[in-house]
Amino acid sequence: MTKHTIYKNEEGKQAILGFYEKYLEELEVTIERTFVETSYGKTHVLVMGPKEGKPIFIFQGGNCINPMTLSWFKPLFENYRIYAPDTIGHPGFSDENRISAKDESFACWISELMKHFYVDKSAFVGPSYGAGIILRLAAFSPEKIACSILISPAGIQLGSKLEMIRKILVPLLIYKINDSREQINKIADIMSDSSMKELDKEILASIFKYVKLEQKMPKLTKKRELENYTSPTMVITGHKDVFFPEKRIYKAAKEIIPNLTNYEVFDMGHFPDEDFLGEINQIVMDFLRLHY
Known about the structure:
- By secondary structure, the protein is of the alpha/beta class.
- The chain has two domains: 10-160 and 218-291, Rossmann fold, CATH 3.40.50; 161-208, no CATH class.
- Helices cover 41% and strands 17% of the residues.
- β5 (122-127), α4 (129-140) and β6 (145-151) form a beta-alpha-beta unit.
């Protein structure tokens, strides 16, 4: 039986895994790498930080590589024990079969990872698709969450489909036809408010070129799903996020999240500007000190 792959060819897969290794080197931290067998497939996990530190699970953004979004939270590595899994079915070293982000599948997957590392309860951090995964855990296993931080979160409310088509899909289709760097720059500028690093642009271009993109967003969470979720939660959003804009996230987040203790807004796109990351990490650490 042919094994499912998210890559269009082996050359593209190796190119993206090469970027993954390059990003790990840039993290400049001691990293343990392990594979965990789960019911949903083999999962590659990056582990770092002091062994005695409180655990934090950090989930990657969708259709990108784990170290890219993990790098945003480097200040957390010093005092916390970080577990950062490559999401199954997304670029990285985990198995490539895709699992549903609309039912309990991701909650079960996370629970199995926690059991493997002997973690009963943890803080969780997730940008974009990673936040949507955390909300699935909050819906089905809320007792496992000590607190959560959701950045540019999927799973709450979507932006304008027309805007996403015009600003992201059209340039993407043109890029796939003519391999134009101009179109990649357009997409990167929209996603990051013109602040994306050149390395990230190269990775984005390779993923668009070589990966069969995950097109299904995590389920939009309903209020009734979070009735038993009472853990402190912080949401961080951007005014210029084309996928999950602040003006749409705020109302929905207040409605569905029972203990929304912090709601922070930055003048940024979907990718946080490097200039904002210091401030974002400071409020994240302040939140953790208070609630964890």
